[in-house]
Structures are given as C-alpha cells and as structure tokens.
Amino acid sequence: MLGDVHMEGEGWRIILPENPSAAPRVEIDIKHAQNSPMNDRVLCEEAIGIAKELMQSMKAQRFADWPRRATKPDAEGKVRHPFLEMEESNLWYCLHCNAEITGPQIAGTHWHCPGCGASPINIFPEAFWLGPNEEKPVPVQARAEGQEVEPIVSIVDPRPRLDLSKDQVTHLIRAALFEDATNASERMGAGLAEIWVDDDLDVVISFEDHYWPEEKEPTAAIDVAAVLGIELELEVMWSDPLFAWPGLGTVTQSTAEYTRMMLDAYRSHGIVEERDANR
What we know:
By secondary structure, the chain is of the alpha+beta class. It contains six helices and twelve strands. The two termini are 44 Å apart.
C-alpha cells in the first residue's frame, strides 16, 4: 500500500514503512491487548521478518525503474537521483529539514532523508530554498549502518472516532437548510446562506433576503443544532439578487422550471446574452 507493507491478523497489524530508516509499527487492538500473539516478542519478530521479505521483492520492482547509479555510489560517492533526470552529486539536501546527506547515505536509505524521513521528491542536489543569510545545512545525524530499528508497539482503539470539526458542522447545517427549503427559491437561499462556525462550534447563519423568507424558521437546521448541542443564531443579509425577479422561484419546486421562467422574464422585460451554440 503506497510502498508500505501491511500485515494483519485478528486484532493486530504490522506496518513496515517504505523508508528503511523508519521503525516497523505494531498495532494491537485494545480489546486484544492482554492476549494478542504480538505480545510474544519472538513471534512478533518472525512476523516482521515475513513482512521484510515481501518488502525486498517490492524494492526490486521499484528499483527496476531507477538508474543503477541511484543505489550504487561511484568511487567519489556520487549517486543519481531516481526522479530528477541526470542530476548527480555526492551531497544532497532535504527540503524538509535542511539536512546535508552524502551520496552513500541517501542511496542506503533508498532516497528517504535519514534525518526526518522525507520522501525522494524532497531531496535535491542544492539547498536552493535557503537565502544567503539563512543558516546553512549541517550533516545529517544518521543511524549507524547495520543498526536494527526496534519496532514501535502501540495499543490502539480501532473504532471510528468522531471529533467534530467546523467543516463537518457546516455541512450538516447546510444539508438541513436544503431539507427546510420548500421551493426552488429557498433552495437557492440554502445554497447562498453564509454559515459561520466558531471555535466552540456554535453557528451563525446569515440568509440572503431575496431567496429565504425572513419569517421562515429553518426548523431542520435548528433540530440538527439541538442534536449536536450547539447554539444557532440566525440573521439576514441584503445584497443584489443573483437573478432579477427572485420571487419567481417561490411558485415551483423544479429548478429547471424556475430557470425557464427566469429566462422568459429576461427575454420579455430585459436582455439575455444568448450563448453561441458553436462554442
């Protein structure tokens, strides 16, 4: 999956990152925390070993598209970037952490930064993003060659977690406004309404006066706010309508019918800039 190896059993999973410097992650579901087979260190290491065998075959497939010099430094330590055509150097720089990386180091980590783990697309032969007065890159502090990385074992709760955000509340409230709309004009008003959500997730809805009747209460939106346990404040804004004669939309449920009536009114009492059928 996206270069990583995922291995799963009942109540546990192992994720082996594409970056060879990154630690394998072992996740154990909380309800299996006491009796998971991944609590057995030997069994866990064997499972990670199987994942590493699969990773080797995946690397072989990936490296087949890379130039040979990407993984084999020459006598001067120069390597060729796998994606930046013809770029060769014995020193490379990470866009994320500004680390200076030698050719053998970056080849050994398959072009992931040994410092921060950034992917190959963030590695360049020059630190062009640094200004003349900015601190220069320093050699990366990499793990010693051949040093094994201990897996990170964590207990996780796999159940879906809801942490309501402003965007989620906005979508729920607007969906409720469309539920409240009883004609084409009010649906336009639901779409045009400005919805503000503060840090406490309390909501202010500002309705466009031409399309949402001032006396109409958005009962579905009020109910949604009550279910969420948030405050809801309503106000009206005045601006030029999208189309002349906005009241035409109050006599039909059909947006297509409203569009026809609106165009007919413009042709009878105003100006319509007709579209070129050949465009």
